[in-house]
Amino acid sequence: MWKPGVVLLMASACVSACGGGDGERTQKRVGQELATLTRAKSCDDLRTTLRQQAIDRMNEQLDAKLAIALERRSGYCEYPTMEDASPPPSGSSSGGARSTSSTNNQVEGVDEPDFIKNDSRYLYVLADGTLKVVQAWPAASSQVVGSLPIPGTPRRLVLEGDRALVFSHLPSSQGDQVGAPGWRPPECTYGYDCDFVGDGTLLQLTWVDLKDRAHPRALRSVRFQGTYITARRVGSAVHTVVTFPGPKVPTVASWPEDIASCDSDKVYTEKEIRAGFKRLREENTRILKEADFTLPLPRFVEQPVGDGGNIAPLPYALAECDSFYVSHAGDSASFLTLVSTDLGALETLKATVVVGRPGAVYSNGESLYVSARHSQASTSGGWFFPPESGIPEASTVHRFSLSAQPPASEYRGSVAVKGRVLNQFAMDEHAGHFRIATTTGHLPSPDVHSTLTVLKPRDSGFQQVGQLDHLAPSEDIRSARFDGERGFVVTFKKTDPLFVLDLKDPAEPKVAGDLKIPGFSTYMHLLDENHLLSIGYDAQDMGDFAFFQGVLLQVFDIGTPSTPTLKHKTVIGTRGSSSEALTQHLAFTYFREKQLLALPMAVCEASAGGGSFGEQLTFNGLMVYRVAADTGFNYLGGVAHTPASTPAFPSQGACSNWWTQASTSVKRSVFMEDFVYSVAEDSIHVANVAAPGTDVAVVPLR
Known about the structure:
It comes from Corallococcus sicarius. Residues 79-112 are annotated as: Disordered. This is Beta propeller domain-containing protein. Pfam families: Beta_propel (PF09826). By secondary structure, this protein is mainly beta. The protein has a domain at 8-88 and 248-293. Helix content is 7%, strand content 44%. It starts with 7 loop residues before the first strand and ends with a strand. Mean pLDDT is 84; it is low at 1-31, 76-91, 179-183 and 646-650.
């Protein structure tokens, strides 16, 4: 029986006695390097460590509250509690198309899951609770030729040859619950004002045989008692990031009840405050020591498929207690798990686990990195940096090495870096060095700035070799991209400084050049070696701030790093216009072979100015451009999905999206030769790029 390698990182902030006579205690600071590992001897040993971690977090929280009480000497009007540790032409060829676009992956050869995949003849689409196989070539004959109902809500799939792996979300009524019941957060795809922690639902994987496209067949189904974060496919190996809840920690008070009276004007003495916190610390410690601390080890359940409907589901543990490794530093009590499997070998399922918070994921196919954000103000365990460093925000980075035959991963170490990471594009590995761009602080604070940190991964940990700090003071990162020895970072407050970074010397990263223009980019795409193509927002300078305006497309010349220039730009609509591609790179389709760009778009017009949103939805569908470095943007036309608004038919909210909540009815697009496939949740519209406004086929998906 296979036995997965499992790594556990824990916070241990208490050095000696955790309760002093005056309510204070001695602390041990957590350093930047987080890679020291010791193996748990047994479940009791592991349980003891988890219990001590909870006590340490409680003590850290009380220390912070005690400092507040000593400063204020008065009642506290809230009764905050310790956080629960559980997280939450017509195309007439009879064969396939000669050329097609594919998923807009960050790294070539490292496929990212999406709800649509394609080959040269078929589209594979998750819609209406089913996997639908659409014969897409010849284009004019596009139609659904096969379908397979998928349990739960299928959200993503990967495809390799005649096999697919579908990632589904299960409602809490179908098994153990990861998070709290009720409302679920929308998917986080951009990262500016959301975090990559999943939606709290359970994950189910379904292996599908596609040899007979008309009759796709489920081969295996596995339900995890955890939440899907993301996945990467390299060949037939699929590595899925899942977060599992840690032990159920009793809720304990973080403020002494006997000094918390909003109705009283009483001022407490220092002796009274210290005595109250001492009693509370002792009571909380007693509660935590007496708690069961049942270990909910990461597990999965084999689900019956096909004719096995009457067979009882079989549960399996992904980890045994003596497979865990414990560190003296960590960032969470939940189980961050990397599950590896093979699309062609159903029995293969291996896992590596750390105790840590989920976050943004980057992979180059050889390694996979998970970076999670932390704020000192909301951290109840030991902080990663000494107080004198003045670093209030950090990102932990966990590194896993990947192997393909058989698919597996191995934990290689962790590190904490200054600032918070935006998303996967702010991370990159090149020539043995890992680069990460982060921001410290939040607008409109004048202390906001950004940092580029260069790390050298070792066999078991990291070594920091270089850093570029205080980049763009008073601005935050809106997009980033790396390309070998170059890096590109866009920051914003009123204008869009595009920074070109020289990364030739890992020990001395530096700014090679910059360009300041109105607006900002949310996604940057390499058009060719010397040009960047970007999407973002135009902006109107209002003095101390700026209003975002219409959707902005730009082409930058980066051939001379010291003097980047803006070669071409076009602005679509006015304030309120939106595109799925602004916050989801998978919706951005650039077909390099034919210089074609397709963007889901809701175009709004008739803004009254002064920061007001447009009132007329003039287009909702897919916009198609021909884009070249020398000629710029040539609009070919739009594939409409819904009627435009009129005074009698208003936009009905489509023109009032906040900039980080960009959304459109069209979600994705695919090119096959000279045809474009515009994919919405309810239908696929097919058109020739020479006449995008004329449908040659419409495929219902519901």
